[in-house]
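Troubleshooting: if your tokenizer reports a length mismatch, compare your output against this known-good record of 173 residues.
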Amino acid sequence: MKPQLIVVSKAAGGPERAILRAGDWRVPCVLGRAGISRFKREGDGATPAGTLRPRLVLFRSDRLTRPATELPVRAIRPQDGWCDDPDDRNYNRPVTLPYPARHERLWRDDSLYDLLAVLDWNLEPAIGNRGSAIFLHLARADGAPTEGCIAMGRAAMQRLLRCMNGDTRIEIA
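Known-good structure output:
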């Protein structure tokens, strides 16, 4: 299975519930608490509607082995962060910690970012307040919504990454 198009669409159970479809394979996933929005804003809790591309896979090498994928892969380091301050020059970019502006730590105590794919939402150029740190990452055990990302179980994420490459598109509708 090497689908070039992966579709994420709403499912029953609330605005944050969705189904990810890659070819004939379907898997439940979790979106932002506000569901899908065509007008994504920083901090709104929505997953942006549109067609996104995976750019880079990051993983915790102290917890997982290198994932099998044709996408670029890099191990997360304890000093890795992601700037989510719309007024900072590095908004929606990776940063090295400590960092003076508002940011997320990629090296987390929980397992959400043990394996993630950076999606190309608002990257080039990054426009202030349009949303940052939109990732495909691991879901919480209780299925709680994300802050705007797409999340799924680890086995499903590993399977999905195996079929992704530089031509993959993720359509969120």
